[in-house]
Amino acid sequence: MDKVGKIIKYQLFDIFRNKWLLFYALFFFVVTDGLFRFGGGGAKVIISFMNIMLFIIPLVSILFGTMFLYNSREYIELLLTQPVKRRVLFAGLYLGLALPLVAGFVLGVSIPFALYDDGGQLATLGLLLLSGTFLTLMFTALAFFIALRNEDRARGFGISILVWLIFSFVYDGIILFASFSLADYPIEKPLIVASMLNPIDLARILILLKTDFSALMGYTGAVFQNFFGSSLGITVSLLTMLVWTMIPAILGTRTFEKKDF
Amino acid sequence: MKKKIAQYAFLILALLQGGSVAGQTADLVVGTDGSIPSLKQALELARPGDTILLKSGVYKEGAVLVDKSVQIIGQGFPVLDGEGEYQIMTVTADDVVIRGIEFRNVGVSFVEDNAAIKLEGVSGVRIVENRFIEAFFGVYLAQSQKTLIEGNEFYGTGTREATTGNGIHLWYCKEITIRNNKINGHRDGIYFEFVEDSKVERNLSWGNLRYGLHFMFSDRCEYLKNVFRQNGAGVAVMYTHNMSMHDNLFEKNWGSAAFGLLLKEITDSYITNNRFYKNSIGLYTEGSNRLHVRENTFEENGWAVKIMANSMESEFVHNNFINNTFDVATNSRQNFNTFDSNYWSSYTGYDLNRDGIGDVPFRPVRLFSYIVEKQQTAMILSRSFFIDILDIAERIVPMLTPETLVDAHPRIKKLNVPTGEKENEG
Amino acid sequence: MRKRGKTSITLLLVTIAVIAGCSPGPEPIEYGAVKCDHCKMLIMDRKFGSELVTVKGKVYKFDAVECLAEFMLDSSVTAANTHSLWVSDFEPPHEFLIAEKAFYLQSERIKSPMGLGLSAYSSAERADEFRRKYGGKVLSFEQMLDYVRASRE
User: Fold this and answer.
1) Residues 74..103 of B with a Cβ closer than 8 Å to C: which?
2) Of chain A residues 25-64, which have a CB less than 8 A from chain B?
3) Under 8 Å between Cβ of B115 and B140
4) How far apart are CA B233 and CA B188, in angstroms?
């Protein structure tokens, strides 16, 4: 564990030197601040912010992750000559990127919230931060996995963007198509399952259900509320998020352990 | 006629000077200290035209039948208690006046529509300034006419179960006026079934389980200057013609099955100068034709207007649409209704010649709201990136949303439309 | 091997979910929270709640027997696509009855939500007992449908 910490520490220096993290945090700060300032208060801010967050976080995480791994190729090779277990090295590299991203996001959002909100949206803010954190962890891990599996940079980036597109765009298209072609069936319950298979959708639905907006989702919304509002629903969604983070992280570690640099 | 005037004079006197004067002019006085201990006894003694003064106290007399044209006036809000078992008062005589009495604990029955006051086949009755606490049904009018219900307060039990009836319930009635009442915690605040030529004015109906106001098969009625707030599902007008609805406030009727105003199979009606604020659906119309929707304000609703394909020849003119999540939704590519000269806060066009009218027509139907009307479950995709892209694409190249559902003269500035609901804030 | 295990577990979960969602049968009505699929009114009264279940397992909910009947007459759900029809017993505890086997009382004195005065009972005897109290006519399922059809003319 000590060694993981060392690698993270070293990487942090590197990251702060590059200042991009600052921009990332600043971006969230400006967006949240602006939404509070001009978007009125409460639920509307949450929903608009959610829109942006669900778009930006997966995209930035997966692109930065991919880029980081390709750019740090020599650095990684150097570290590999040291007496460090590969598993430990991977964890250090991964957390060294993902944690600053999480921190930038959390700080950027929390400060305006603390300034403007009277605490009425605290639970929703918690949910926003939690889903943002999970999405960062998951998409960074995915990026590492993709970059490790593809020697060719262009190909790696291509796949990363494709994966992002699938999660944030194509998947919803398929759901829309399915809900039309299966209109004669009671598809509410299968839809709950389907929405959990995509962490971006899961985060979006959890947050929407937390706001007034849920009433607009009609009967389907009520069915979803029944499930996701229950303690079973909350547990299952948290577990799903966790699994979604673990799978790419584990796959990444395995690839890293076996990879011939 | 003279007798009527005398009655009015008496009422005014009673109001102005309270019980002592009333006591002198009353023909019969009921009270624990008086000579007549019960209302039933007084009713037996009374002759038509008499005034019965009911002194304050709690009266548990079971079911009381009023079959003579008398005035029953309470002094200091006497309580008639139904002990959770009875229909309290049944009126079968014309020209009865009931004023200043508190009715409590009407018997709940799963078949009988027990009421605090039931009017059966009467005319000219006035029910004024009474209180109804935990009445199953408050005032129930069956086959009655020319009756006034004014200034009463109704507080139902307000639980979710169907153990509460309607505050004011009309069945086969004509020429009824319902004015200045406050109704809370009933199933429907005010319910009309087979009613004609009646008026509902300046009432406050809030927190009722189903509808604040509900019309079924009732023609040529008018309701105005009412406030309908936080009712289970809002206000419903169904299978009705020639309605006039104006200057009302429909507010905070929010929920997955709620709306401000539901219209089903309504024709030739006017909806003017109303305000729809924070309802999950402001105005929902199905199978409704020739509606004139003018000078209303729709603000911060989930949907301002949902208009189903079978609604035709209606016009939406000079309305304000402000900050609604969706302005207009429909389930058809066809449109047989007119939208013109409204103000839309989501309009992004410009006005180069500065005549106050946008130079680019406005299409209030977003692709997503069209999709959702076709398949409700698609609502779970709301606010997703995919839907945003679809909406933008549709806005640039309209393919699915109704081509003719366009406001060709969108107003640049909010229209100054008067609404008369303000004076009735509860 | 482990990877394949995971995939099959996922598949299994999906299948279970799909099957759980699809086996046709009546669902409890959330009174006070759902709209009638025919008249769009909020379903409030346990004495009258009704359902139509399709072969594919979709459940339509109604606030009154007459709404169920009108939906059957109007909608695109054909008899062949209908799995089962359910009406609430007018008597407490208002359990679901198979609509075709229930008996109906049409009485002016029983105020059903959509004004046709229809209520459902578990047997002809029960229906008749209410008829003696409230008047009207006891109808079979078919007669009830005819009554609704005629009332729309």
Assistant:
1) none
2) 47, 50-51, 54-55
3) yes
4) 10
Low-confidence ranges of chain A (pLDDT < 50): none
Of A51, A172, A215, the CB nearest to B255: A215
Tens-digit pLDDT profile for residues B76-100? 999 999 998 889 999 999 999 999 9
By the 10 Å C-beta count (0-12 exposed, 13-18 middle, 19+ buried), C93 is classed as exposed
Q: Indicate yes or no: CB of A217 within 8 angstroms of CB of B380.
A: yes
Q: What are the pLDDT digits (tens) for A122-177?
A: 888 889 999 999 999 999 999 999 999 998 999 999 999 999 999 999 999 999 99
d(Cα A144, Cα A150) in Å, to the nearest integer? 10
Q: Is pLDDT at B23 greater than 50 in this prediction?
A: no
pTM for the whole thing? Answer: 0.86
Q: Do B386 and A169 touch (CB under 8 A)?
A: yes
Question: Nearest CB to C44: which of B171, B210, B255?
Answer: B210
**Smallest CA–CA separation between C59 and chain A, in Å?**
7
Is residue B241 helix, strand or coil? strand
Nearest to B375 among A172, A179, A213 (CB): A179
Q: Kindly state whether A218 is in contact with chain B, defined as any CB-CB distance less than 8 angstroms.
A: yes
Distance from CA of C17 to the nearest CA of B (A): 17
Per-residue pLDDT tens for B46-83? 999 999 999 999 999 999 999 999 999 999 999 999 99
Do the beta carbons of residue B245 and residue B220 sit within 8 Å? Answer: no
Provide the ipTM: 0.88
In the DSSP assignment, the letter for residue C56 is T
Whether residue B258 lies within 8 A of chain A, CB to CB, comes out as yes
Select from B162, B260, A188, B306 the least CA-distant residue to C33. B162
First and final CA of chain A: distance in angstroms? 24
Residue B17: is its pLDDT beyond 70? Answer: no
Cα distances (angstroms) measured from residue B104 to each of B108, B169, B191: 12, 17, 20
Q: Is the peptide bond before C93 cis (omega within 30 degrees of 0)?
A: yes
- For residue A168 the two structure tokens come to 């944030």
